[in-house]
Amino acid sequence: MKKFGVLGVFILGLLSAGCTTTASQQVEEPVRFSDPLENINRFFFSLNQRLDRNAGRPAATAYKDTVPQSVRSGLHNVLDNLGGPVTVANSLLQVRLKDAGIATGRFVTHRADERSVPYAFGVQPTEHGMMLTYTYVFR
């Protein structure tokens, strides 16, 4: 039993010795980089936070509390459908003709509710963003 006690003290001593440092091993002060726009960034961050807290959040809460879910869903689908021509253009620029055809069909046959033709046939939207188009066209 004494053997395990001595071994335990020895292991504890080794572990605690690994945490010690000398003056030459002290961590130096981190290098600070100068940001010439820091004051402007802080101002706009603060402004955005205040606008969000005092205007955006109350407006979103009022919208959610007063507009029925079916109207919100329909508005979301209409606004989502407005991105259809952009998706068609991106697909054409990337020479993805099948995706362009699908996006055109979705845009033409899409209604504001979940019972529209693309949903009925299970046609999923294709998303090829503008950044992917830029990398494809300008490489």
Rg value: 30 Å
Question: In percent, how helical is the residue content?
Answer: 55-70%
Helix/strand class: mainly alpha
Count of beta strands: 0
- The fraction of residues in strands falls at under 5%
Q: What composes the largest sheet?
A: none
Shape: elongated
First-to-last CA distance: 72 Å
Chain-averaged pLDDT: 77
Task: State the main characteristics.
mainly alpha; 0% strand; 139 residues
Q: Summed up, what is this model?
A:
The chain has helices at residues 2-17, 38-66, 69-81, 84-93, 97-109, 117-120, 130-137.
Task: Characterise the protein shown here.
By secondary structure, this protein is mainly alpha-helical. The chain has a domain at 68-139. Helices cover 67% and strands 0% of the residues. It has helices at residues 2-17, 38-66, 69-81, 84-93, 97-109, 117-120, 130-137. Helix 4 (84-93) runs antiparallel to helix 5. The chain starts with a helix and ends with a helix. The mean pLDDT is 77.
Strand-helix topology:
Elements lengths: L1 H16 L20 H29 L2 H13 L2 H10 L3 H13 L7 H4 L9 H8 L2
Helix pairs in contact: 4-5
